[in-house]
Specification:
Blueprint: H1 5-15, E1 51-53, E2 55-57, E3 62-65, E4 71-73, E5 111-119, E6 130-139, E7 145-151, E8 160-165, E9 171-180, E10 187-196, E11 211-219
Parallel strand pairs: 1-4, 3-11
Antiparallel strand pairs: 2-3, 4-5, 5-6, 6-9, 7-8, 7-10, 10-11
Length: about 230
């Protein structure tokens, strides 16, 4: 987009709050200990039972969880924004087809830093299950938006927008949304978090300060069983 630091800030003040009415999802209750506190509006991220840590898949070109367990966590594999560092394997989009914006500075300007997802009822990832998705990101201001997309087939993705998140302040944020896995569909699926500075929702806009990252995960057949996830 090519904004200078001064003009970008002026534009944000004059128009950043007029981008539309977006709803941020509330953090899960109860909030685990060790977070940045409710006043910051940030949900703490603690390891959950049987949460698989993703590893980089060179074929898909994104972090992937191979087992259909209770959830999937990218941990630090998204931290930062490609050209700004330190994000490994950037751009971390399926097939490498959507590049990161090159404007700004690491953890002064926008980046998606972490995605983790898990079933809301504590059972294994399976068709028809509701999942909670936690996205950690760095916001330049509350004028940013984070668009969340899902794809039923990570090998041939068609992206569906299901939530738009609004940061609760400049800097580090962790916000949550829910999504229901499609009925009758198993295999490797994916979610995409796309942070944008201005403009409308877009699954791939690599201009300026924008960043997006994909997390692939295995969805198995439903067993009808559930396990309780301790807080």
């Amino acid at each position: 987009m090519g904004w200078s630091g001064t003009s970008r800030k002026w534009m944000q003040v004059s128009s950043g709050l007029l981008l539309g009415a977006f709803v941020a999802c509330a953090p899960p209750e109860p909030t685990p200990p060790g977070g940045q506190g409710p006043s910051a509006g940030i949900a703490a991220m603690e390891p959950a039972p049987q949460m698989e840590v993703a590893s980089y898949d060179a074929t898909l070109q994104v972090p992937r969880c191979s087992a259909s367990g209770l959830g999937c966590d990218s941990e630090a594999l998204f931290d930062g924004r490609g050209p700004l560092g330190p994000e490994p394997h950037a751009p971390n989009t399926l097939g490498g087809t959507c590049l990161d914006g090159s404007a700004g500075t690491y953890h002064s300007d926008e980046s998606v830093d972490r995605i983790r997802l898990y079933t809301t009822d504590g059972s294994a990832l399976a068709p028809g299950k509701e999942i909670t998705i936690e996205v950690s990101f760095w916001a330049y201001s509350i004028g940013n938006r984070v668009d969340l997309y899902a794809a039923e087939d990570a090998s041939n993705p068609t992206w569906t927008l299901f939530q738009v998140l609004t940061p609760q302040g400049r800097g580090a944020n962790t916000l949550t949304a829910t999504y229901t896995l499609p009925e009758g569909i198993t295999g490797v699926q994916a979610v995409r978090a796309a942070i944008r500075y201005t403009g409308a929702s877009s699954s791939c806009d690599g201009e300026g300060y924008n960043d997006r990252d994909d997390l692939a995960f295995q969805v198995g057949a439903s067993t009808g069983c559930s396990e309780t996830m301790n807080p």
